[in-house]
């Protein structure tokens, strides 16, 4: 145990480790806030669909050798979120079908582009890193950390400022429209903020594991807490805790960052299920 503590203290002296922990916990916090709303609206897989779109956009950005691929990936993912919301309201293409169509199509096209045009000698390694997370979270610059901090503050501020409206739209969209609330506008806000979180989380857990970061903390909190505000707070605590623990374990034992965080979320979920059953009894 002393060796682990000494090893952790040694790593914490490096700025890149501190940067990774700051960014990871901020991303986990933002994911948990929107995760509760997405789960309750039964729109959990929007994160999965948008993450695959972000993968396709990242593949295109890599081919054009953009210095900062976020400049290209972020607008494309946000535009897709808007398109997905509009398409989901079409009676011919339901929301789940639109998500599946965009998800599979973007993933396939992104992989095809990387194979056809990539100059990398290790295409399989690049694809695997993008899909399941990579060590890029440990090579963040101070500028990238500040971008993440600013975007995270913006996401949290928007959620807190529009909390009552988001609560209303989440539980009874029909009632919200009847009382004059611009439900479509707030749904659009949720979709755009979700897209921003997806792009920020790409380097942390990879495009295939982002949905777990959004869904598991919310589901874990719902097993213990029965009111919306309590679930949101509990979900945020669980998400940040799992992200921090997962990243520390990854640094200490050289395990994949994204997979370790998701594994921590899974353990907490089963623990929450057990606690929920005990409490109900």
From TrEMBL:
Q: Give the superkingdom in one word.
A: Bacteria
Looking up InterPro entries in the UniProt record yields: ABC_BtuC-like, ABC_TroCD
Q: How does it sit in the membrane?
A: Multi-pass membrane protein
Per the UniProt entry, what are the Gene Ontology biological process annotations, in alphabetical order? Answer: response to zinc ion; transmembrane transport
Q: Which Gene3D superfamilies match?
A: ABC transporter involved in vitamin B12 uptake, BtuC
Q: Name one GO cellular component term.
A: ATP-binding cassette (ABC) transporter complex
Q: Which Pfam families match?
A: ABC-3
> What is stated as this protein's family in its record?
Belongs to the ABC-3 integral membrane protein family.
This protein is called Zinc transport system permease protein
The organism of origin for this protein? Kineothrix alysoides
> Upper taxonomic classification of the species?
Bacteria, Bacillati, Bacillota, Clostridia, Lachnospirales
């Amino acid at each position: 145990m002393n060796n682990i503590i000494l090893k952790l203290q040694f790593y914490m002296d490096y700025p890149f480790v501190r940067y990774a922990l700051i960014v990871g916990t901020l991303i986990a916090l933002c994911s948990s806030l929107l995760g509760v709303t997405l789960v309750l609206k039964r729109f959990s897989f929007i994160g999965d669909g948008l993450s695959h779109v972000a993968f396709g956009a990242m593949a295109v950005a890599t081919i054009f050798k953009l210095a900062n691929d976020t400049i290209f990936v972020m607008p494309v993912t946000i535009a897709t979120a808007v398109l997905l919301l509009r398409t989901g309201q079409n009676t011919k293409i339901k929301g789940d079908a639109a998500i599946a169509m965009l998800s599979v199509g973007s993933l396939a096209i992104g992989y095809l582009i990387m194979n056809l045009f990539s100059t990398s000698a290790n295409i399989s390694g690049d694809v695997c890193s993008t899909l399941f997370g990579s060590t890029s979270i440990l090579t963040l610059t101070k500028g990238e950390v500040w971008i993440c901090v600013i975007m995270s503050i913006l996401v949290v501020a928007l959620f807190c400022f529009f909390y009552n409206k988001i609560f209303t739209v989440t539980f009874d969209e029909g009632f919200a429209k009847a009382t004059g609330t611009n439900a479509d506008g707030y749904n659009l806000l949720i979709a755009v903020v979700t897209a921003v979180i997806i792009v920020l989380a790409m380097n942390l857990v990879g495009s295939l594991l982002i949905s777990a970061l959004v869904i598991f903390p919310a589901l874990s909190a719902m097993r213990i807490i029965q009111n919306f505000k309590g679930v949101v707070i509990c979900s945020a605590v669980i998400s940040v805790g799992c992200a921090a623990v997962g990243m520390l374990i990854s640094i200490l034992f050289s395990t994949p960052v994204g997979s370790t965080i998701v594994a921590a979320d899974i353990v907490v979920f089963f623990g929450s299920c057990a606690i929920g059953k005990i409490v109900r009894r």
